[in-house]
């Protein structure tokens, strides 16, 4: 498969939390997700220096005669696009992470616990260490051969009888 195919694989398996995901599927999708996020954030933040420098935070209407209201349009459009992108990618992001943990013979509830902990005050500081550990775990190779979450996705000789 090409890198582009790996990026799209989680979208093709939308909402599929069962099974296993190879490292290539996980990391190419993460590159796609964070690459698009970076571009959208660049659009959002492109107008901030000019807007703040000219005092628009006090009087946004003062910028319209100078043509700088385009910065507000960029920030608003970028924000809406990012929100739509985030909503669309939320389930594939969760699913590919859970499947990656399954490939390591771990339950997807480990990720769920980290997500819940990240919203609890003071516990969220410790949860960030868990997210760093998650990155390391997802970088390690998966379990060789079948495990309780399914067949080995790297095994070319694996035959599914009732596929």
TrEMBL record:
What highest taxon heads this organism's lineage?
A: Bacteria
Q: What is this protein called?
A: DUF805 domain-containing protein
| Spans through the membrane | 26-51, 71-96, 108-137
InterPro entries assigned: DUF805
List the GO terms this entry assigns under cellular component, sorted alphabetically: plasma membrane
Q: Which UniProt keywords apply?
A: Membrane, Transmembrane, Transmembrane helix
Keyword Signal on entry: no
Lineage of source species:
Bacteria, Pseudomonadati, Pseudomonadota, Alphaproteobacteria, Sphingomonadales
């Amino acid at each position: 498969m090409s890198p582009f195919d790996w990026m799209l694989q989680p979208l093709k398996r939308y909402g599929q939390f069962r099974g296993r995901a190879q490292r290539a599927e996980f990391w190419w999708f993460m590159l796609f997700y964070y690459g698009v996020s970076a571009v959208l954030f660049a659009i959002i933040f492109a107008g901030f220096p000019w807007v703040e420098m000219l005092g628009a935070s006090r009087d946004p209407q003062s910028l319209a005669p100078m043509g700088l209201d385009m910065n507000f349009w960029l920030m608003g459009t970028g924000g809406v696009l990012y929100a739509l992108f985030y909503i669309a990618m939320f389930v594939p992001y969760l699913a590919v992470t859970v499947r990656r943990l399954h490939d390591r013979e771990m339950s997807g509830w480990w990720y769920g616990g980290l997500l819940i902990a990240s919203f609890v005050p003071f516990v969220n500081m410790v949860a960030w260490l868990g997210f760093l550990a998650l990155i390391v775990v997802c970088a390690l190779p998966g379990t060789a051969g079948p495990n309780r979450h399914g067949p080995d996705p790297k095994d070319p000789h694996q035959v599914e009888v009732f596929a």
